[in-house]
Amino acid sequence: MLNVLQITDVHLLPGTHERLLGVDTADSLRAVLTQAFSERTPDALLATGDIAHNGELATYDRFSAIVDEFYAGPRLVLPGNHDLWAPMSRYLSNPCVLSLPGWDLIGLDSHADDSPAAELGEPDMVELRKACAAAGDKHILLATHHPPLEVDCPWLDKDRIQNADELLEWLSEHTRVVAMVFGHAHQIIESDYESADRRIALLGTPSTCFQFAPRSQKFAIDDTKPGYRWLYLASDGGVTSEVRRVADYPLNIEIPQRH
After folding, report:
1. Most exposed: 10, 62, 84, 90, by fewest CB within 10 Å?
2. Which pTM value belongs to this model?
3. Quick check: is 228 in a domain?
């Protein structure tokens, strides 16, 4: 059994004690990692985008330094819509694959610089097909930033992966692909894609800082605490998971007033 820790939507800022919507996102990241690593040491760490809130090299350096305080093991880091490719590139793998015993974690880059929407074109699909073929008889966990399905939040759903049906249909034909995990929605999403004889788990994970209100029609924050997901990958290809939260974390949410 492999234990993979997924964190997402860190929205880190470059300056010490800088806050986003009232939250010190570096402090909330440390709180998440402190709790998670008190539970177990993962076999790999997976960070599914929006590492920075405004992409600057100093922010990515800061993220790496914070993670290094807790963990020296293998990690796979993906960009999100708030990230910028150039300053983040030194922390990205090419190809975006993390090989573990019996499993490959494959990252699919759904981000485009300076755009909230997912961008997934034919070159991305070509790279995905190559990575899946190279996995051989290993089981595959696919990771991306944007959701491949609607999450009942119209203001978020407009930016989901638009060609997700094509993507999921192809994945269902590749029998080694077991699950797809993502971020962006700042809330728990647990669903499935089912074809004639296949089921692929679709798992969205809460942010390490603030959460979006589920089923909200427009931008809305709720008081749910910072979270993370443990993914348990069995040698037979089974995937189970659990979302954990830092229950006593003081969020102190501040929403700017619009005039």
Report:
1. 90
2. 0.95
3. yes
